[in-house]
Amino acid sequence: MPPAIPLATYRLQLTADFDFDKAAAVVPYLKALGITHLYASPVMKARKGSTHGYDTVDHSQFSPELGGEAGFARLSETLQQHDLGLIIDFVPNHVGVHFADNPWWLDVLEWGQASPHAVSFDIDWDQLAFRARGGVLLPILGVSYGEALERGEIELRYDPDEGSLSAWYFEHRLPVAPERYGEVLRMIVKEADAAETEPGKRLLALAARYTGLRRPNRKEAPAFKAELKGIAGAADIIARGLAAYRAAKDRPAQTLALHHLLERQHYKLGHWRLASSDINYRRFFDVNGLAGLRVEDPGTFAATHRLVKQLIADGRLQGIRLDHIDGLRDPAQYCQRLRRLVRDALGTTKPFYTLIEKILCEHERLPHFAGVQGTTGYEWMNVLTQVLVDGKGLAALDETWRQISNRPPRLAPYVKDAKRRVLETLLTSEFTVLTRLLARIANGHYSTRDFSADSLRQALELYVLHFPVYRTYLTTSAPTAHDRKLIEETIARARAEWFAADDGIFDFLRDALTMDLLKPGRPPHSAPRVRRFALKVQQFTGPMMAKSLEDTAFYQFHRLLALNEVGGDPASIGLTLPAFHQAMQARAKEWPHGMTATATHDTKRGEDARARIAALSEIPGEWTSAVARWKVLNAPHLTHHGSFRAPSATFEYMLYQTLLGAWPLQGPDAGFIERIQAYALKAAREGKEETSWLNPHEAYENGVKSFIGKILDPAQSAEFLEALQTLARRVALLGMLNSLSQLTLKATLPGVPDFYQGTEFWDLSLVDPDNRRPVDFVACRAALSSLDQPDWRGLIKAWPDGQLKLAWTRHLLELRNRLPDIFVRGDYQPLEVSGGHADHVIAFARRHGRAAAIVVVGRHFAPFTQAGREWPALEGFDGTVDITGYAATDLASNELPLAQALRGLPAAIIEARTASAAKPIRQRVRA
Question: Is there a smaller number of Cβ atoms within 10 Å at the N or the C end of the chain?
Fold first, then answer.
């Protein structure tokens, strides 16, 4: 049996090209590497052709493209044979909608609020303007609605196998409400001139039988459709008669008929750009094709988790990663329900490994949720980067960025501007829902009804602009002291920017957000509306922060890209060693079993590309000089058009960092330029400065593409490329040393190390989709099998081939497997380092009972490598580690010389014994 708490996880991205069977073929390799749990991307049925699985359309079945139930069974059997556990990425927050593959969504489109699945979606049915009946906006059209109609792109079709009618817009199915079948059948029979034929008479009789409002109703509709399907000759008549709804520019009557039919449905078709202002269903961020699920509804929770429960009961699932927990209305309630489900499935209260995808901002603490062991590790990824960057060099990079951007090196103004942009464009409709609800609450009592809708909108906007984290965690009861303090501090900052008369509007907003409006003795307000508002604001601020910080500001603020990582602080001043040790001691007590990640499918760049860029903080003067020279060399390749240049000065600076991070160790291959150009296009649009996804600036984008092509063309930029390659070789060496230190820390610190597919070799990838390219596991297996007895000197000499990282990964995982108590349950003790190079070393011990492991990791290697020109002279490290209280082979005193510890490699782990048993730390146990 695999351990309940993993010793190491390995993330695989499953796709149609890498399915359950191909994953099963990799299992023996993972076992040999030292992995204890396979960590798979979503496995439930997703949209056909999905490259990630997060667009689940049916939680009740396995993805057919991945191999279905049979394929999963084969993978499960292989995992059991090799004693590996399985953790799946599960998506409770949203499902894929539109197209024709989500049965719940199609049922809602057909039946509207009468659908039993309507309660599963967060739809504001009454928000559509200029409609007598409620409905849901479907922003799926590539052109305006009128143009799509007149082009004939929207077609009414009959499915003779179902006896059903649907409008279709290319691949999107739009079921017709059965209450409209009668009028459609009458029109069809008339158009086909079939009223006197036997099939025609039966069709008219069927249509006449169901009269009155909303008929046939849901109970009657199956019989109606069955009878329609059973009428001999009906399909031919319907096929001819559908011409009455065949719209075209030269067919105004038919176009109007189709339009009137569509207007009487439970949905309204619209251009995709309408989503930002008019959409009335909760989405995943601003993705129209992913609709939010209301898992707070017990029936929805039970239906979407039935397969998960069965897998746990069958012993085929040992862990779960919960995607986008911040999207849920009440994450605490959800986690409690999930824990009950797990206990029911297991029949015991033993721990079940549960992680949440939660992005923490700087200095934010993770709330405690029932049964949750921790997060997927973004916060620890950033801690590792911040302790490895050279804080002294960051000050110099501040000045470089100030000169290039002509702005102070402060992140907050970028985030605030980005939030304002996102409010005005991407998430306007969601914000409008909130402001309308707030206005209705205010209008519900005479004491607050004079707060105008416009003033409330402005006040709420200021609150959102100043809100510093992703969300609060209010439930239907009172807020925690932490959440109350966060809301009050944000209100104070918002109030400070309010220049109109206050008149209590911010007090009202605060009390709505905290639900204090409902306290006894207060003027009565609608309790359902107040609770809905407070909880929906929480669901809004998360996407707001994500789109503003990660997907906008991170692509504008380029002072040092290594710090621009999910959950990170691009303006960080680095992390001191005492602060690092303090964070690790706290983690050992609070969250010892959360993941430690250094790369994921969502990271902005590969872990080794990030480690390279971090090394620029060690040589800031040379880097700044190089950039100044490169700008001169590449100036002729800039595109100037009117008032803009492509790329902009800040974007050009970003490109140079990107090139150093991603530069292939053996030189660029044929596809490298295209990869950089694709990354640059995404980065430019995400940054929303000169171009964007909503409003692409073709001239600017072409200018950026041309610039990249020219500067990477040896025929046009030989001098630049020679200079780039020279610096790239040095940065690659420094980055490689950073990478080995990062890897060692990941594997030895409190937490469960996670390895993203292929990162056991050098990972110089860029943001998705670049980081989701297929991995050559055949080559990986062959390389691993050749490293049974690693020749460390030989591996160091040939380090560019990546086998050094592979061998060191296996060595670290062997240690974790051999010493599980130390690394899973052990405490964390900082070890004092003295000497001239003490600041270049991180030293600590992991202890459990009398067993211990002493870990020594180097950092800031530029002084020992002639700034990246040669392998570090580790024997020159001046310092000792105080190991008083520990004993180990070859350690005769209480001082461990750094030169002795770091023999050839920039990190070392020494098995040891303590003089007395370590006092067990009181870790939180989450069953």
Answer: N
